[in-house]
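Run log // design_07
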């Protein structure tokens, strides 16, 4: 805390004491007019217990003048006051005790001031001289809290090895076309960096992307991986992913959408901004829709932050085509498209088995495997409604619930019982 702030703090404490003295003087006048007040409760929360006194009287002009002389900046229409911020005990006290507390507080403040200025013989508080900066104690808990050293920000994690990320990519079930697209993109970025390092000209790289496909086809999963890949390649400084949708960008009042959208964009700087169901920004229509305002703000910042921000928009294939073609600016900035196909039945089965393995479960026998196959074949008739990998996750969780219901009726439950999912568990999920 600098010298000026220290002086201001002590002056504020002095002003609080002045108000306390004024309060005491007014209570003295009050007692002269109305007799001794039974008891006053003072607390740190500025609470005062109601007493059996009449309504607060009008303060005589002499007392009001006296109060204004001690603290000209404060008007006293009644006898309420703001207690000092230094700690006060909770107890019942008379006006005499109140005045004693004020005197003791004033003496304590004077002592603190003398310690700060290094003059033990100084009397009273008065005008404060310059306060030395070395070894200055903190006077109250609020200032101490502000002055506490802020915890250090966690060290930024180093970029991951690109080969490890490619290995993770190819460990995913299915998504063969997407894997090829990502491999090609990695190669392109790597070669452009080599050209730049060699002093050769390089075209401006537009790495903003459109992900299209049905729900549960891995769009968010790949977006998260892409943010880490871009950081590994040195394209992004942070490599984090910020996920949002129309509700996170569009406000309900004129002029608020641009502010809301800009805040989300700023939070994604250095990483990837992933906008799910982005088509909802432009297909609402109507005079009171502010989706276009969000799009305009997005386009401007995509240009302003092109060196450290990548935007990925996602949604159903046909609707995303309409979204990109709804605005020339969108079409010029998004020139990389990835189509996420639905999973096959075999791939869905592999995803289910992978979940079982990671969670410590297994299908009991061929009958259970056949029940799962039948269930997924039926789901493949409308994978958009089923949800692809998301639908498999839901199916797996429902199967666990059915298993728990079944085991609840057992008198004895073995470890094998806890590990196995039966055909009954799968079929009852329908």
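design_07 sequence
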């Amino acid at each position: 805390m600098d010298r000026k702030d220290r002086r201001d703090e002590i002056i504020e404490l002095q002003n609080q004491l002045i108000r306390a003295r004024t309060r005491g003087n007014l209570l003295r006048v009050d007692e002269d007019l109305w007799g001794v007040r039974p008891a006053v409760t003072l607390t740190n929360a500025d609470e005062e217990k109601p007493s059996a006194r009449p309504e607060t009287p009008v303060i005589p002009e002499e007392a009001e003048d006296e109060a204004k002389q001690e603290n000209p900046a404060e008007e006293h229409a009644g006898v309420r006051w703001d207690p000092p911020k230094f700690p006060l005990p909770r107890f019942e006290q008379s006006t005499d005790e109140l005045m004693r507390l004020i005197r003791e507080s004033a003496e304590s403040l004077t002592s603190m001031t003398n310690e700060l200025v290094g003059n033990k013989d100084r009397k009273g508080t008065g005008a404060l001289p310059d306060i030395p900066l070395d070894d200055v104690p903190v006077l109250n808990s609020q200032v101490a809290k502000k002055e506490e050293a802020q915890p250090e920000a966690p060290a930024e994690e180093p970029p991951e090895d690109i080969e490890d990320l490619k290995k993770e990519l190819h460990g995913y079930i299915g998504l063969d076309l997407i894997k090829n697209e990502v491999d090609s993109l990695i190669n392109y970025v790597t070669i452009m960096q080599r050209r730049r390092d060699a002093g050769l000209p390089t075209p401006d790289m537009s790495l903003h992307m459109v992900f299209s496909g049905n729900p549960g086809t891995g769009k968010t999963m790949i977006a998260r991986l892409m943010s880490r890949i871009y950081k590994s390649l040195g394209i992004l400084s942070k490599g984090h992913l910020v996920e949002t949708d129309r509700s996170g960008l569009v406000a309900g009042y004129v002029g608020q959408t641009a502010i809301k959208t800009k805040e989300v964009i700023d939070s994604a700087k250095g990483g990837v901004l992933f906008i799910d169901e982005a088509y909802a920004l432009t297909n609402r229509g109507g005079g009171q829709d502010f989706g276009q305002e969000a799009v305009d703000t997005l386009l401007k910042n995509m240009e302003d932050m092109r060196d450290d921000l990548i935007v990925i928009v996602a949604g159903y294939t046909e609707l995303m085509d309409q979204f990109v073609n709804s605005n020339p600016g969108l079409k010029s900035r998004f020139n990389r498209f990835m189509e996420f196909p639905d999973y096959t039945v075999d791939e869905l089965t592999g995803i289910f088995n992978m979940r079982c393995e990671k969670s410590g479960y297994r299908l009991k026998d061929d009958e259970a495997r056949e029940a799962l196959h039948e269930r997924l074949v039926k789901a493949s008739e409308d994978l958009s409604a089923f949800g692809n990998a998301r639908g498999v996750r839901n199916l797996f969780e429902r199967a666990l619930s059915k298993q728990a219901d079944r085991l609840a009726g057992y008198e004895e439950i073995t470890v094998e019982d806890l590990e196995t999912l039966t055909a009954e568990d799968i079929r009852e999920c329908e």
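Residues 167 and 310 are 23 Å apart (CA to CA).
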